[in-house]
Every structure is written in structure tokens, then in C-alpha cells.
Amino acid sequence: MKILVVDDQRSVRRLIVQILGALEEVLVIEAAGVAAALAAVERSTPDLALLDIRLSATPGDRGGLDLLRELRAKLPALPVVMVTAASEIDSIRAAMRLGATDYVLKDELSPELLLPIIQGIRERIALRGEVVRLRARVDRTEGLSAIVGATPAMDRVRDLVRRVADADATVLIRGETGVGKELVARTIHELSPRRDMPFLAINCSALPHALMESLIFGHERGAFTGAGARAKGQFELAGKGTVLLDEIAEMPLDLQVKLLRVIEDRTFRPLGASKEMPLSARLLVATHADLERRIQEGRFRQDLFFRVNVIAIHVPPLSEREGDIPDLVHALASDLPRKLRFSEDAMAWLMSRRWPGNVRELRNVIERVSILAELDLVTKEVLESLASDRSPVAFLSQIERLVAAVLSAPADQGSKLVILERAMVQQAIEACGGNMSAAARLLGTERKLLGRRWQRFSEGALPDLDDDD
After folding, report:
1. Is residue 205 within 8 Å of residue 247, measured between CB atoms?
2. What is the DSSP letter of 284?
3. CATH code at 283?
4. Closest CA to 456 of 226, 228, 266, 211
5. Which residues pair with 173 in a beta bridge?
């Protein structure tokens, strides 16, 4: 911490320097007058200034108030403590009006008086620096800079996010699984006037029908079997914040009807309630599905589509923006404790690779390399050994080891086939970010079948082995 001490009396400066010597990591810069003080400021910006109000006994000479004005013009955030005599009360008032932080009396200069003032200012400076760092972190993680990419497609995404942030219109965010639709939604929220309110995301593909309605709208006590107390839904909990309905294409038709009314009337009714409640939150929706095709198939309401498609933002897949992969790799790696470096051939390998899981898959690869790579410099060979798809022989070998481990488990754990199925279903849903359709494709089964199985698992009922649904 650099402290500028300005006083025309050398004895006073020496006393102040002696008192400040009790503080750690403090550099004191002395000046006897206005000109010397301003020259010192030009050479090195201080963190704090201690100014004598009367710098000269000669009438007409520039004093501490004049210096305070100039420092305020040059360094508006600089804390300034005035050093004065008790008889100069009018000058003290003038200094405080000019922006002085505090004052001390020369007759009372002591460590007990001055050090607490300095320490308090020091803590405020540290806190201000922490706020600046936190704001930079928020901007990096949830601001526009979090939407990484310099391609024209990503420029359009950022431009739309910036333009819609202050509006209250419903936004439809479209894109393949893993492209970062929720990140776009969070960025809209963080740039909006609602940024200090909650942001709540609901994945419609990860919830059974009965739980989805209660989670979104809430319920009153006795609304259904097991509803022993009133529960607030996400619409109510969000307050004046933002609610993201992710994978809205998976919402059942009867709930689509209720959602349409919510959007049109800006009110909702919890299950079992007799009165409507106002919706104060902003709604954002997202999906990877082809909604126009769902409408033709009768699986998505056309009137709801018109209501949610007020503003559409399409987040392109990685296959359409290979040029963004280096920036994404560096951004993802910078969030990890280990500082990785990627060789040119490694980056070329990453750019040439297909990424069906988009940014989510790329993140998983970077995290895996960060954990398993022996060196901080990542080469093509390292990526090929750690990130490439495994061979069929290795895959079958891994499956055999897994089966052997399950079969060796105690018999009192229940049906091992059912336990294994439940684990596979849960892992698939988590790997796909709660997207039931993607999880069904990953498992090689139908989405409806997977949904029924998962609902039974969620309700605590294990299906029979011969239950083919």
C-alpha cells in the first residue's frame, strides 16, 4: 500500500511515518507542498493520501484544500484523510464537502487514533478490488464473454442476446443438445434488469408428468395423495426473476394448454388452489427438437409455438463453427485447476474431430485430459490415447469387467438385472443433461419406454423383469 504524506512541517511528517511503520507492506511517499505532491502522484499513483490543510504559513500560498481539489480531479477514487488543527473547523467542513474520507487532529496524532482509520480504508480498498474481480468473473462466466466464439454465427447470437435482454418478451432458444442453450438463457438473465432476481431452469424431459406440473405451478395441501403441505412452484419461487423451460417439446399436451394460458394471461394456478396467482417472472424456453415437425405430428400445439416463438435464437452446433474450437478449448481449459497447453497438432486434431455432443462433449474431453494427461503440454498423441473412441475389443472387455463386478455383489441387494438397468438409465439421462429423447437414443430404446421406466424408478417402484411395457 502506497501512502502519500503531505505536510510542510518535517516533524509532523516524521511522526506520521513513525506511526505508519507499524503497518506491514506500506510504502510512504513524503511531500512538503502542493507541487511536490503532484509530482509524486505523477511518478506513482498512491492508494491513500494524508494531507495537511494548511501547508504554508504564508498567506496566498496554495494549501491542502487546493491539493485536494486537484487530487479529486486526477484520482476520483483516491481516499484522502485531512490532517488539521482543532481551530480549523470550517476548513474541515470544506474538505469533507470536497470528498475527503476522514480527518485527524494534529494535537491527537497517535497510533491509537490514526492506525484504525488507515486499516479501515485499507480494508475498503481490498473489498473494492474483490468486487471488481467478482464482476469480471461474473462477466466471464455469465456475461456476453461467456458465449465464446468469433464466427459470424456466434456474433449473431451475442447480438440477439444483447438486444433481447432488456425486453420481457418470451425467447425461444434452439439448437442441438450440448450447444449451450442454458448458457444463452443465463446470459440473457444476467444482462437484464432482473439479474439480481433468481434464475430457475426446469428440464421438461427429465421429469415425470405428475412431478412436472407440481414443480412448475406448485400445489396446495391435499391437492393430491402425499401433498401434506403447500409447496411453491418454480413460477412462484422465481419472483421477478427468470424461468427457463428447457426441452419444452417434451412437455405433455395438457400442460402445454396450461402454459399457453399462463403466457397469455400472465397468471397461473397451483394444483388444488382456488385463485390465480400473478406471474412476475420472465419466461425463456429452449429445445433441440424440430417444433414444426412436432406440430405436424400433433405432439406440440401450434398456438403455443406462436406464443413462445416471439424471438428465436439459434445456437449453431460445433460442426458449423470449427473456427471457434480453439477459443472454446482455451476457455474451457482456463476454468480447470491444471493449466494445460495444446500443441498445434493437438488443436488441429480437435478441430477435425466430429463433436455430436457439441460443447458439452468437448468440455468432457478437456476435463478428462486435464485429469489423466502426464504432462501439461497436450499433443495429438495424448488426445488420441485419452479422447478417441475406444475400440470394440476394449469396450467389450470393460463390459465384461462390469458384469463380473455386478454378479459378485451380495444377493441381498435385490435383482441385479433391475439394479443394473436403473443405473444405466440414470447414467444415460445425466450424460444427456436430462434430455430424455437423447438418453433414449443413447440407450438404443424408445423415448416413451424410457420415460415410463424412469417414472417408475422416480416413484420408487422397480419394474418386474418380465415387464416389457
Report:
1. yes
2. E
3. 3.40.50.300
4. 211
5. 286, 313
Pair (309, 354) in one structural domain: no
- Do the beta carbons of residue 149 and residue 180 sit within 8 Å? no
Residue 238 lies in a domain: yes
386-411: average pLDDT: 60
pTM over 0.90: no
In the prediction, which pLDDT does 378 show?
Answer: 93
C-alpha grid cell for residue 257? 394448454
Phi and psi angles of residue 392, each rounded to the nearest 5 degrees, phi first: -55, -40
pLDDT digits (tens, 9 = 90+) for 179-196: 999 999 999 999 999 999
DSSP letter at 271 equals: B
pLDDT above 70: residue 467? no
Task: Work out how many domains the chain is built from and give that number.
Answer: 4
In terms of phi and psi (left: phi > 0; alpha: psi -120 to 50; beta: otherwise), the region of 99 is left
CA dihedral 329, 153, 162, 286 (to 10 degrees): -80
Of 362, 386, 410, the last residue of a domain is: 386
Q: Which residues of 435-446 are buried (b: 16+ CB within 10 A; e: fewer)?
A: bbbbbbbbbeee
Listed in sequence order, the residues at least 6 apart from 228 whose beta carbon sits closer than 8 Å to its beta carbon are 221
For residue 132, which amino acid is it?
V
Q: How distant is the alpha carbon of residue 191 from its chain centre?
A: 12
Contacts of 38 (CB under 8 A, 6+ apart): 67, 70
On the 0-12 / 13-18 / 19+ scale of CB atoms within 10 A, 247 is: buried
Q: Compute the chain's Rg from CA coordinates.
A: 32
